[in-house]
Design a protein that fits this description.
With 223 residues, the protein is of the alpha+beta class. It is 40% helix and 22% strand. It is built from seven helices and ten strands. β9 and β10 form a beta hairpin. α2 crosses α3. The radius of gyration is 18 Å and the shape is globular.
Length: 223
């Protein structure tokens, strides 16, 4: 289970600063399927995932979920700190049993306002979130379902490699095909069919909780 120093938002903070933050953090456990935040409600707290997985999503006009982000240990929902009155732009739901740290929005705003290191870390998180949103727009705009799946796999592999979490093409997939379908805006059956075809073509292999990329150049040629 991660510690405060492992949280992306707190990277670069000193031990005294981490101890100060620890005094205002609270820990709470959620069960799989529990709602942490609801879109449109007043944002009164900021949470950090300590253990487990959480999805951030919005409902489309057709009533279908569109997953925006999937948060794991060390990730945060941290949003605009410029005002103490803010409304949630997305809903958050536990993808698994999880533990989160949270602090009030007022505390969050005060911490960011007085700590430049924290402010810089937040800028990095926002930049990465913008990159992910741009990638998501590109994914869902692709009409070819195969290209959507392939692009997601390649993007995720690059992301895991940047964290040195992918070894030999092994790509941990800590969520179901249904969640993957919600992320890509596709039917679950379509995602399953595309993964099966990629496996049949020996481009990937599918194992419990992970996908192994067997032929990265071959996947890249499909885009």
């Amino acid at each position: 289970m991660i510690q405060l120093k492992d949280v992306s938002l707190f990277q670069g903070l000193s031990e005294p600063e981490l101890r100060e933050i620890g005094t205002v953090l609270h820990e709470k456990e959620y069960s799989k399927g529990d709602t942490l935040l609801s879109e449109g409600n007043t944002c009164d707290r900021v949470f950090i995932v300590r253990d487990g997985r959480v999805k951030l999503y919005r409902m489309t006009a057709e009533g279908r979920e569109q997953i925006l982000e999937m948060l794991g240990p060390g990730d945060t929902c941290a949003c605009n700190p410029g005002t103490r009155e803010w409304f949630c732009s997305a809903s958050a739901e536990a993808l698994s049993d999880c533990k989160v740290w949270f602090f009030s929005r007022d505390q969050y705003v005060r911490l960011v306002e007085k700590n430049t290191t924290l402010s810089h870390a937040l800028n990095r998180i926002f930049a990465e979130r913008l990159r992910c949103m741009s990638s998501l727009v590109e994914e869902v705009s692709l009409k070819d379902s195969r290209k959507r799946v392939v692009k997601f796999l390649l993007d995720m592999l690059a992301h895991e490699e940047s964290k040195k979490a992918a070894r030999g093409g092994e790509l941990p997939i800590p969520f179901t095909r249904e969640v993957l379908a919600q992320r890509l805006g596709m039917a679950r059956e379509t995602v399953a069919r595309q993964l099966h075809e990629l496996k049949h073509e020996k481009l990937i292999d599918i194992q419990p909780h992970q996908i192994i990329v067997r032929n990265r150049p071959g996947l890249e040629k499909l885009l």
